[in-house]
Amino acid sequence: MDFHIDTLPNFPHATVEQCIQETGDVFLTLRLLNDTAACPDCGQASGELHQSRPVLIRDLSIFGQATYLKIPRRQFYCRSCQRYFTELLPYVDKGRQYTRRYEEYIYQQVQLTTIEQVSRIEGLTYDRVEGIFNHQYK
Ligand SMILES: [Zn+2]
What we know:
By secondary structure, the chain is of the alpha+beta class.
């Protein structure tokens, strides 16, 4: 697939490092460009990266194919608080496996159709669609 994007307007400080198409799914590997992250407790920026492991986050489909972002989930050390914290990303709610815009999209689709239909189109289980809907309906 010929697919070139260097910057994603909706994903600040991130660039697409790799794009793979595999068994009908699209995987975009993101590289984060910021070297520091703000501690959620004291707000101080830390550049002491402790560990990083990739997580798969479902995003809006590209060309009708299920799309996943491979994003490094990074842990930094805050000297003031003397503890590790996980970097918060503005486009993924804490602990979620989907981007915010994907969850918003699912929420809208459920309102327009039914959970069953969205589940079938998106290839998600009923429970997952319902989970997204309930997460958005706050
Ligand atoms: Zn702190």
